[in-house]
Every structure is written in C-alpha cells, then in structure tokens.
Amino acid sequence: MPDSSFFAEMALELHAEATMADTLARIVEFAQQALACDQAGILLVHSRSRLETMLATNDAVERSHDLQRKLDEGPCLDAIEGDPVYVSGDVEADGRWPRWGAEVAPLGLRSVISVRLASQNRRYGSLNLYSHRTHAWEDGDVDVARVFARHASVAVATSHQEDGLKVAADTRNLIGQAQGILMERFDIDADRAFAVLSRVSQQRNIKLRSLAEDLVANRADAELFKLPG
Q: What residues does the ANTAR domain cover (predicted)?
C-alpha cells in the first residue's frame, strides 16, 4: 500500500491540473502505480439511459463498458446503482455477471474493482480498475481504490459545478447582447427588448438562449422581429 508521501504528491499534482479530463487521467496514472492495476476506465452517468466512457486506458476497457451497457450487467454499472464498491478476482467465474464476464475475460481483463463516483447529493459514475491477472488484489487495495475514487469524485463534481456556472453566465451574456441589438435597432428599452425576445421564442418554439445566440451571430435578422403593438 502506498505511503503518505505518495498521496501527498498525488494531491498536489491533481490540484495543479487545469481540466477535469486531465485530472481524471492523472488519477488513473496514480492508480496504475499504486495497485496491481493494468488498465482503468471511468464511466459517467448523464441519465438513466445515457452513460459515457469518460476515460479508458485501452480498447478492452472501452469494450468492457460497452458490453455492460449492452447486457445491462457488470460491476461498473452496479457500483453506480447498487453498493458503492464491487470487487472480483476472476470475472469469468463470477456468477454475478455471467454474460459480461464470459465476454470480457478473453479481452485480458480478469480482475476488477469498481468504485462509485459521487458527492453527497449526486451519483456521477464509477472508477473501474482492472488487472490482467486473476486474484490480483491484495489487502488494502480496495481502500486505496476508494481514495482514488474520492479524488475523481471531487474532480467531476467541481467540473459539473463550474460548467453549470459557465453555461449560466454565457446565457446571461448572450441574452444581454441580443437585448442590446434590439434596443439599438428599434430604440426600445431593455424590458421591451426582453419581452420581444420572449415572444419570438414562444412563437417559434426556440429556446431563449438559442434565439439570442442566433441574433448575436446574425444581426441582420433583427429586422425580422416584429414589435408587439
């Protein structure tokens, strides 16, 4: 099991990464150093019907995730919906996922640890660590995997929050720019401009953000807006 200096170095390096993707890639690198982990993947859940492989160290891991979606069974899925951690020392002989295990073992993925990625309020996906050997895991490996999963959870949660704030800010800016165009073109105030945008959005069944974005990109379209009487 890695000592405290390993985790201290890891925390510093992860904090220095600029994006979620970079952070997750570094987490996987550290996991491969710390455990008998030959390959790894991160599966994110966007909705009950949409799962995304955010990271896969090789094609076998990508295939493993695809098979779980197709067969609706496997440790990576169960870690999201069931218990927080699933461990198998021999996926081919594991009766919990017979169809998935039979197909993934020939790909060279023989042992797996899957750990949930989550915050207090949301489940984001799973961190999945694989070994090419059966019965690869040693005492303490699951605890180490949990540490990596906590770091990955923080990275994903922070990214979701920052992305949400950025989208909200971008939307406000776009709508403000679109209001400015209408105010200048038709000599109206901000409230009247927003009313026009809202009316056209409803009439055309277009989201307000999309309408504003189109107006900002194509200023000549402002002439197509009919002011309410």
A: 155-216
Measured between alpha carbons, how far is residue 53 from residues 4, 12, 26, 115, 132 in Å? 31, 26, 16, 15, 20
pLDDT level of residue 47 (50, 70, 90 thresholds): low
Please report whether residue 108 resides in a domain: yes
The packing angle between helices 4-16 and 20-34, to 10°, is: 160
Classify 96 as helix, strand or coil: coil
Pairing of strands 123-131, 50-56: unpaired
**Residues 48, 172: Cα–Cα separation, whole Å:** 30
pTM of the model: 0.71
CA distance 147 to 141: 10
Domain that includes residue 212, residue range: 164-224
- CATH number of the domain residue 25 falls in: 3.30.450.40
Q: Specify the number of domains making up the chain.
A: 2
| Domain shared by 39 and 99, yes or no | yes
Among candidate residues 207, 206, 218, the one with its CA nearest the CA of residue 178:
218
Eight-class DSSP state of 224: G
- Residue at a domain's end among 149, 184, 200: 149
Q: For residue range 56-78, what is the model confidence (pLDDT) as tens digits?
A: 999 899 999 999 999 999 999 99
Residues 206 and 107 in one domain: no
CA distances from 96 to 75, 87, 93 (A): 9, 11, 9
